[in-house]
Amino acid sequence: MGVRRRLAAVIPLAVAEIVATVSAHARGTGSPDAETVYIVTARQTYDAAGLLAREATAWKDSLGRELVIAQLDPLQIGALSRHVHEREQRCGGFFAFASRPEAEAFIVRDRTAEAIALPLGGLYTIDNQATVGPWLAQVSEANIHATITTLSAFRNRYYASPYGRQAAEWIRDSWQALAAERDDATVELFQGCSNCSTQPSVILTVRGAELPDEVVVLGGHLDSITSAFSVPVPDLEQPAPGADDDASGIATLTEIIRISLASGWKPRRTVKFMGYAAEEVGLRGSAAIANRFRDDGINVIGVLQLDMTNYRQNVGRDLRIVSDFSNTALTTYFAELFDAYLVPLGGVRSALACNYGCSDHASWTSAGFPAGMVFEAGRPQNPNNPWDLGAFQSIHSTADTLANMGNSASNSVRFAQFGLAFAGELGKTYDGAEDAIFSDDFEVVVD
Ligand code: BES
Ligand code: ZN
């Protein structure tokens, strides 16, 4: 109690944020009784949080930013976290590991600097209106609404609870049904995450008809959390509806899958749709997948992250393109796609810096792949709080419900349209060239 009061009094906002998230990582190893957790965090954060850390060592990341690896006591952090989260309403970034060598390997392997600068602009073209155009009017608010309703009705989607696994299996089944008629599409559970407890990620793959080795990824996280889970041994029965964060992203992906597959679209490139496990406890599911793809030498040419698409006050914008922890050419492409397809529908875009690796795109970036994220319109930011990202204020609480978003999914419609443009333009469309060549030959023979 004494520690809690003291920190509440002196801890700066930025540190409070980080500490809140650290607790999620700390308890998230699947072994709540773990003695210590090793975090990688910004030097600035560590300096303020020094009260908590032991055996800290200084590092620099690939961008030259000063980092610290520090050993923390999950019990201490866990007790602090709930208080901070409730008081400060903030989120924060850090990476957590079970051992110091793992934390060190993460920094040494990190490829964020290269991934941000990958010069892929030449790949990012817009010339597939024939496919994308007809898709846009098909986006159904009712479908997105229904999926958010189903997902947020799971008691929670916490990565270590049985409900968290059941929700992943429900997404698998629902995507399977949408791909049932397609012999070029498969749906699988990705189980290769060693610290995701029992929660798998879900991957739907549409095999590219011409360039199957070039891979386009659209994803969002399927887990949910509330600050009430930020205790050493959480009660796995607690509600965590996560309607905006991030049932909205999964529902948006589901609508993109429905429309694109039902249209008979055959992409030239391989397109993968992903529901990531265990994002809320430190981007774990996406990190496992991105690192596996890196180790396997998979050529991922673009990743779109959809995390929180549905909350919007009257802010004069519909969507914000996240500018940091993202590939620069890809974020430029996002803006071009928006201008080509959403502006004619009345859409307005702006930009947002999270100032930390706020979602799964950061896992792909850290693994060296070009990734980016689009984020909800939200509400006006508090000018006195640089950490306020103008997001839905009820995330990570039991109030993250559709009812508290006007019982409407209409704001996610633009994100589904944006995702359809991204999939159609980066995946392109197989135009039956082989058939055409065959017909030409045939006609020559006939002549
Ligand atoms: N959806 C949030 C990220 C977010 C929240 C972005 C508000 C912008 C505004 C995401 O699910 C999340 O909570 N991420 C964690 C960080 C992660 C490394 C555990 C967070 O922000 O605390
Ligand atoms: Zn989220």
Automatic annotation (TrEMBL):
Keyword Amino-acid biosynthesis attached: no
Keywords associated with the record: Aminopeptidase, Hydrolase, Metal-binding, Protease, Signal, Zinc
Keyword Metal-binding: yes
Peptidase M28 domain span: 202-409
Gene3D superfamilies on file: Zn peptidases (3.40.630.10)
Stored InterPro entries: M28_fam, Peptidase_M28
Protein name: M20/M25/M40 family metallo-hydrolase
